[in-house]
């Protein structure tokens, strides 16, 4: 019996160690057993060195509990074994997370929580008391003192939830803004759609109005034709009435003279008043109108006889030597660009349209829109001669090769030739149906060419006083015309953006040059004739190789239009008169562009003196500026 009690007490001690109960509390255990009355315990001291050398396995303290009323050794051992088995199974089934996360300590969790909630005073109290306890050694920092992963995960999820809420709010704001932009775009689309519909309606209305106006205009054409015929009939009646009036005045004056002679007492027989045939009309008295008509008839008869007797001029068959080639070789001097404004001559009341210099004398001729051309002496600028005769603005003028005659073109559709020694008009060419823009002399002096707004150019024979040829080919106004030096080739520049070279003998277009994008205002040859310069309405100046008929270079000094271009006597400098009042000088060797500023308004024309030491430019205010 005693041995059985000893075995029972040793088993209870092992169980106490397995359950984490201290071996030093033997008195408490004896009292518990006495209270039950089932066991008698005996105190036995187990030394560290056991006789049987048995190695005891350390059992972790997992707070196992034995229900009351079931303190059976076999059942307790079986429960311990089952707990160990379950622990092994759980360890085998545990799945480690892919993310290695260090758990957060309890004290760090509390500090972070207090900081997050803004409880600074509580945090200070907790930290001071907590670290004081740690220093005293009252509280131990155990490895198990960590916040479970569930709480940490909840905090992470809460933070992520807050971030997602912020992003959701941001996306809502972006969606609201996009919705507002969409509504605004839809409103603008509706507005533009309504505006387009209104524009289409206005366009249809304008088309209908234009059709109505065309019909209305067509209905007026017969009426205008009838009124025109009536006007001519009335003019004829007026002429006849004036003739009858002059005849009556002559008869009355004859009767008055007869009465005076009768009163004096002279024997005089009054002439009979009767209608006489044409052979007897010469003896009858005639009035001033009849006298003027008779003189006009006689003059026209004389001109007709002269035209019948005068033969047509002949174009030179051989190409004549160009004297400018020798001049260019002699004048091999550096080009001049440092022109300065020297003087201003006010010669016209309206804009100056053209300036030319005499081939040999120090004079220039200016034409203006006030229907007047003037001969000006240099360098003082005194007016030597004034020419009147055109009924509309003058557009261009050109010297005869000898320098003693002048050709002028005008908006009155005529070309006039003038004798500069007398200052009177010696010949008028009529044939264009619209304004004449330009004119030029042939180097032989027997032909004058003109270009017009009616899209044609004409070649006039000075000797036979008639149009020898009309050049057709341009589709818009022909703004410029010039003879190639000492040849039968004509160069024309048109508003249809093309240049054309014509044979004056046949009237055929030999070659056309294309490249300008706007209306060509002027075109000219170099003194040697190997190059062409042209300018258009957008300020673009082009240089062309006349031998190869190919473009060389294009210079854009726009957007102001280029009104006229001219070379100096050496052919090294090209001057352009611009619509913004600037004179551009282009150095053909270096390609540099120099500007002359001095015009107050638009510059219409520019020309060099023969020695290229002076430059003359015409302004739209009626003045001529000299640069030297």
From TrEMBL:
Places the protein is found: Cytoplasm, Cytoskeleton, Flagellum axoneme
Highest taxon listed in the record's lineage: Eukaryota
Region Disordered: start-end pairs: 281-303
This protein's UniProt keywords: Cell projection, Cilium, Cilium biogenesis/degradation, Coiled coil, Cytoplasm, Cytoskeleton, Flagellum, Phosphoprotein, Repeat, WD repeat
One GO term describing the cellular component: axonemal central apparatus
SMART domains: WD40
Record has Transmembrane as a keyword: no
Annotated InterPro entries: WD-F-box_domain-protein, WD40/YVTN_repeat-like_dom_sf, WD40_PAC1, WD40_repeat_CS, WD40_repeat_dom_sf, WD40_rpt
PROSITE patterns: WD_REPEATS_1, WD_REPEATS_2, WD_REPEATS_REGION
GO BP term, pick one: sperm axoneme assembly
Its biological purpose: Necessary for sperm flagellar function. Plays a role in motile ciliogenesis. May help to recruit STK36 to the cilium or apical surface of the cell to initiate subsequent steps of construction of the central pair apparatus of motile cilia.
The protein's name: Sperm-associated antigen 16 protein
Organism per entry: Monodon monoceros
Gene designation: SPAG16
């Amino acid at each position: 019996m005693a041995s059985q009690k000893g075995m029972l007490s040793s088993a209870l001690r092992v169980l106490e160690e397995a359950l984490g109960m201290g071996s030093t509390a033997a008195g408490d255990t004896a009292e518990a057993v006495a209270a039950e009355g089932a066991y008698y315990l005996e105190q036995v001291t187990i030394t560290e060195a056991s006789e049987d050398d048995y190695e005891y396995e350390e059992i972790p303290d997992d707070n196992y509990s034995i229900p009351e009323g079931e303190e059976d050794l076999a059942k307790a051992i079986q429960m311990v074994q089952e707990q160990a088995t379950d622990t092994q199974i759980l360890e085998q089934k545990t799945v480690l997370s892919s993310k290695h996360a260090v758990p957060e300590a309890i004290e760090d969790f509390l500090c972070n929580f207090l900081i997050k909630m803004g409880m600074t005073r509580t945090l200070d109290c907790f930290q001071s008391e907590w670290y004081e306890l740690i220093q005293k050694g009252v509280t131990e920092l155990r490895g198990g003192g960590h916040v479970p992963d569930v709480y940490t995960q909840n905090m992470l999820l809460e933070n992520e939830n807050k971030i997602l809420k912020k992003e959701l709010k941001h996306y809502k704001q972006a969606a609201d803004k996009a919705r507002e932009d969409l509504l605004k775009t839809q409103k603008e689309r509706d507005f533009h759609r309504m505006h387009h519909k209104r524009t289409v309606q206005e366009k249809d209305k304008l088309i209908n109005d234009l059709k109505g106006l065309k019909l209305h205009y067509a209905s007026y054409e017969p009426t205008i034709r009838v009124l025109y015929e009536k006007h001519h009939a009335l003019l004829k009646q007026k002429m006849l009435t004036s003739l009858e009036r002059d005849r009556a005045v002559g008869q009355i004056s004859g009767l008055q003279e007869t009465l005076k002679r009768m009163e004096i007492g002279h024997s005089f027989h009054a002439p009979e008043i009767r209608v006489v045939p044409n052979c007897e009309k010469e003896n009858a008295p005639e009035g001033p109108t009849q006298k003027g008509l008779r003189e006009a008839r006689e003059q026209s008869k004389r001109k007709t006889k002269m035209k019948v007797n005068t033969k047509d001029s002949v174009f030179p068959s051989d190409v004549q030597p160009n004297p400018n080639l020798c001049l260019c070789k002699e004048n091999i001097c550096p080009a001049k660009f440092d022109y300065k404004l020297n003087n201003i001559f006010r010669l016209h009341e309206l804009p100056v349209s053209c300036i030319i210099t005499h081939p040999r004398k120090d004079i220039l001729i200016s034409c203006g829109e006030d229907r007047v051309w003037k001969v000006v002496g240099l360098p003082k600028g005194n007016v030597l001669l004034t020419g009147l005769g055109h009924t509309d603005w003058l557009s261009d003028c050109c010297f005869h090769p000898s320098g003693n005659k002048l050709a002028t073109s005008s908006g009155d559709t005529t070309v006039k030739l003038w004798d500069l020694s007398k200052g009177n008009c010696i010949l008028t060419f009529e044939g264009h149906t619209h304004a004449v823009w330009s004119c030029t002399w042939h180097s032989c002096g027997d032909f004058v060419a003109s270009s017009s707004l009616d899209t044609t150019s004409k070649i006039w024979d000075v000797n036979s006083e008639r149009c020898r040829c009309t050049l057709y080919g341009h589709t818009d106004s022909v703004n410029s015309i010039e003879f190639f030096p000492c040849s039968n080739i004509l160069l024309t520049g048109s508003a249809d953006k093309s240049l054309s070279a014509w044979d004056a003998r046949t009237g055929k277009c030999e070659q056309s040059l294309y490249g300008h994008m706007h209306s060509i205002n002027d075109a000219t040859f170099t003194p040697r004739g190997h190059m062409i310069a042209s300018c258009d309405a957008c300020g673009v100046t082009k240089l062309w190789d006349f031998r190869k008929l190919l473009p060389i270079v294009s210079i854009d000094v726009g957007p102001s239009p280029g009104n006229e271009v001219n070379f100096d006597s050496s052919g090294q400098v090209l001057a352009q008169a611009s619509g913004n009042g600037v004179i551009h000088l282009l150095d053909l060797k270096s390609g540099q562009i120099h500007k002359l500023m001095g015009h107050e308004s638009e510059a219409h024309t520019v020309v060099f003196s023969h020695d290229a030491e002076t430059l003359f430019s015409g302004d739209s205010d009626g003045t001529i500026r000299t640069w030297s």
